[in-house]
Give the backbone structure.
Amino acid sequence: MPKNTNLPTVVLVGRPNVGKSTLFNRLLHKRRTITDPTPGVTRDPIEADALINGKPVRLIDTGGFKLDREWGVGSGEWGRRGCGGRITDNSIDDLVVGKTFATVEKADLIVLLLEAGEITSEDEEFIKILRPYRGRLIIAVNKTEGGRREADSWNLLSYGFEKIFMISAEHGDNIGELCEEIINRIDFSEVAAHAGRGRSSSYSHNDSGEAQHGQVPIIQQAHVV
């Protein structure tokens, strides 16, 4: 891929094993990060340049770590800010979370990836932590292939989200609408002129505006609370 300067950053975050690395690979159109059923395999943020609908971005897959809400406010920087949650296990997790949220703070866009089904306490902690960044936050619910457990995702409306994108990172379901939302939410005015061609996560639409890879179900409400 040709090198570009001042690329906007898109950061993928979420609890372990929700499919962040699989989505990262899907958007890159190649296998770059390790995907494994063991939670926390991706320890450090992994970065790569990607073309999404023909637009260059810096895509970042954040490290896997666990949040323990039962301990209340932790001793780390994010705990002192009153965002809740305490990193468990050992000092490696402390380092991982520090790197992750340093990346989040600098991101142009944040994609919080959740798994289809009931919202867990860890999901709630991520939502709480990311609330100050809601202006650059996208919510995607993964593993919804074939409509799997989509009904449970209606519960996310109670957290004040305007849109929720139902996707399957593994099967590619509804990735096109997610890509479109990513591009529409980013300001590309400061990106250097793009020269050459690269592989693009591009999903075309027919004349009716329907994504040819399937229209993503989008849950909407009028106001954010």
Remarks:
- DSSP finds five helices and ten strands in the chain.
- Residues 90 and 130 are 23 Å apart (CA to CA).
- Residues 69-89, 194-200, 203-225 have pLDDT under 50 and may be disordered.
- Residues 91-106 form the longest helix (16 residues).
